[in-house]
Amino acid sequence: MVSNDNGTPPIPPGTSGEPEKEIPRKGFWKTLAVFFALFGPGIITSNVDNDAGGITTYSLAGSEFGLSLLWTLIPITLALIVIQEICARMGVVSGKGLSDLIRERFGARATFYLMIALFLTNLGNAVSNFAGVAASMEIFGVSKYLSVPLSAFFVWWLVVKGSYKSVEKAFLVACLFYISYIVSGFMVDPDWGEITAQFLTPTMEFTPAYLTMAVGVVGTTIAPWMQFYLQSSVVDKGLKPEDYQYARMDVVFGSIIVNIVAFFIILLCAVTIHQAGIQIETAKDAALALAPLAGKYCTWLFAFGLLNASLFAASILPLSTAYTICEAFGWESSVNRKFAEAPQFYGLYSIMIILGAAVILFPDVPLIPIMFYSQVINGVLLPVILIFMLILVNDRRIMGNFTNGWTLNLISLFTISALILLSGAMVVSAFL
Amino acid sequence: MAVAPHSQVFLFLSQILGKGIVDSAGRNQGKVVDLVVAVAELYPPVTALLYLPPGGKSPCRFPWNKVAHISGQVVVSSPAPAEGPSGNPAEGGLLLKESLLDKQIVDTHGAKILRVNDLHLLKVNQNLFLIHVDVGFRGLMRRVGLEKAADKFFQWFFDYHLTDHFIPWRFVQPLSSPDLLRLKVAQNRLSLLHPADLADIIEELDIHKRSEVFQSLDVETAAEALEETDPKIQVRLIENLNPAEASDIIEEMSPSEAADLLGDLPKEKAEGILKEMEKEIAEDVKELLEHPDEKAGGLMTTAFPTLPPQATAREAMEFMRQEAENLDLLSYLYVADPEEHLLGVVSLRDLLIASPQTLLGDMMNTRVVAVQLEEEKEEIADRFAKYGLKAIPVVDEGNHLKGVIPFRSLLEVVAPQLGK
């Protein structure tokens, strides 16, 4: 502060060089400060990834196959980092969203069918997330006829009436609640030596059930919508090429967190439900099965985690879908616009939430086939998007000097082929 | 069948792309991949087509005047390709597919950024002219190949007749390349937009197009648009310019806006720009820079009218007329002595009805509502509301007139909190 007693003459104008703001020192603290200013996209994307479908898959993987699928999380983390890094880089360098780049590079027809597929698969995801809300609230004794409409209204209101800043903050807070799974993991006091051994030694069972589950775990962790969402939010943040290293840190950090959460869910179900030999079919079964084995607090924590994840994903997924589609077709799209200014954007967003919630409220709705076909479309869509991404990231007109080098291309190509193989296997097995 | 001598037909680019080319003898020459137009004209005529010869890899150029007619196929009169693939295929023109189709454009009439779904061409005899850009849903369906199906569906399901959504070419500003933005012949259509609309459009563009568009504007338009732009984006836009270019634009801005912007820039950059600026303006801006944004000193402008009490109403009117262009505020004229002590205020209304010989010192209102440099914005807002003023002068402890806060500047600070 400049001291200014009454009566002293004002500071003569034109004096410069007064120390106003302290320039942050280079080094660790500066890096950390910039990181916290720029982080968000990668961490949010990764956490939405652990949605109701993800938690269900991890619970089933743990309770059916014990700890034997735990090691797959290591390659999955690496693949996630490779893929998301491409998106973050494209976002930072081109300043454009993925659907924008796809539209400009591959034309209207390819984009149109891609967007229809994306809409359908994400609608399936929306349904599964409202199912997650219904299931978790039923554990707390709340009827789905109350919880689902209320939560649908809540997520709709959050985005339509809030600004992007408040929405992002709400989402970052939601990320914290994933800790509930880690807490439950410690509550059951597992044998850490055994877990470390299983985690670090890859084992394969060549049975159809095991392979299907492995594909399921991969498929739920690496989904098409994430690439669009991540790239758009990187663009929205307005990151410059100089800030790229922070975007990459964000992505790596997020990819690791998502798999830590997955790790604890598998672990929890493996050491309790699997060891007790109980058969479960849904995440709700898993939560309920935990009560006699690990105590009712564990059930509550598990259910709370499921509720948080479902709500979180139920708001981001429709948002991301609406955003992506509007961007591809040149429609007005921003949470900062009013309803009448961006009718397609809010229309798509609202339709997904209303349909997603309504399906759950119908009695006897065939939930499992709906989920199943949405997963199949997911499996068809993912390879197409990954191939498009690889073409785009190697296009010099878009990426300039930030194209993939040959090592990076080799790694990406390997990762993408592995994912395509797995997605293909899932689609084929779906029709056998 | 009789053909009208001056047949006028509308065609879409999507209908022409991919058409086969045959020569007069009916031999296959390849496929149309793009059209070139001469963009300098109001309705750009097609001057050439690019085609892919059978088995060829890179497109060749063919002058449009050798095209005999188009229907199911493009029939050309001269058999061999007139020009090889050498050189820039867009030579002297604009490639329709490459730089317009699926790309973003600005509709300068509706002040919106839109994506091009198709291009609408008029055929007069054998000449083609680009007349509309199709941004509608029907255009999108045409590209997908479902135009008829979509028409029928909407008619049947909603009883709604799906119509085309065209934008006349003269309202279209293409964005795809920096060259297009700098075309002097076609005149940059963006300068026709209201600065606030232009600012919205700039904010919506991606980082690269943002600077390209901004740098294509003339200094005055750039300054006006910049004043309306979000502060964070302002900083980005200015950071990309060299100090000389930046100072030209900032000089055109009002001193208070300029000070806010320079205050947000990194210190070295701001100093570099200040050095390049005209000395007088730089001094004003530096003084404003000393004060925090949220207080009176940061809200005020130094571009306000002030005269000594000995001046007559006639002289005052003459002064206002001459300086109007450079002033941020015209509602009031402030009366101050040579030491800049604030003595009184005369409103423009008083000045208009006063007889020309009256001295300002005799007609001025001496009960001036003023605020101190350190006054908080809430307090200032209260004063505006209480006294119903259009502007409030700012003084230091010694009653020296330092600047004036126009109501507009206060509104910018207060408005964001109004909706909540």
Name of the level-1 CATH class of chain A: Mainly Alpha
CATH superfamily of chain A: Amino acid/polyamine transporter I
From the alpha carbons, calculate the radius of gyration of chain B and give it in angstroms.
30 Å
- What percentage of residues of chain B falls in helices of 4 or more residues? 25-40%
Gyration radius of chain A, rounded:
23 Å
In brief:
The complex is a heterodimer of chains A (about 425) and B (about 425). Chain A is mostly helical and about 425 residues long.
Could you describe the 3D structure shown?
- The complex is a heterodimer of chains A (432) and B (420).
- Chain A has helices spanning 28-38, 41-49, 52-65, 73-94, 98-139, 144-161, 164-176, 179-187, 192-200, 208-221, 224-237, 244-276, 283-294, 296-329, 343-361, 367-393, 396-399, 406-430.
- Chain A has 432 residues and is an all-alpha fold.
- Chain A has one domain: Amino acid/polyamine transporter I (Up-down Bundle).
- The N and C termini of chain A lie far apart (75 Å).
- Chain B is an alpha+beta fold and 420 residues long.
- Chain B has 3 domains: 1-169, SH3 type barrels; 193-290, MgtE N-terminal fold, CATH 1.25.60.10; 306-418, CBS-domain, CATH 3.10.580.
- In chain B, 38% of the residues lie in helices and 22% in strands.
- In chain B, the strands form 5 sheets. In chain B, strands 2, 3, 4, 5, 6, 7 and 8 form a 7-stranded mixed β-sheet that branches. A 4-stranded antiparallel β-sheet of chain B has the order 1-11-12-13.
- In chain B, strand 18 (371-372), helix 18 (377-387) and strand 19 (391-395) form a beta-alpha-beta unit.
- Residues 1-5 of chain B have low confidence and may be disordered.
- Classes of the chains: A mainly alpha (432), B alpha+beta (420).
- Chain A binds chain B through residues 6-7, 9-11, 13-14, 16, 20, 94-96, 100, 103-104, 107-109, 112-113, 235, 238, 240, 329-330, 332, and chain B through 101-104, 112-117, 135, 140, 143-145, 206-210, 232-233, 236, 267, 271, 283, 286-287, 290, 373, 396-398.
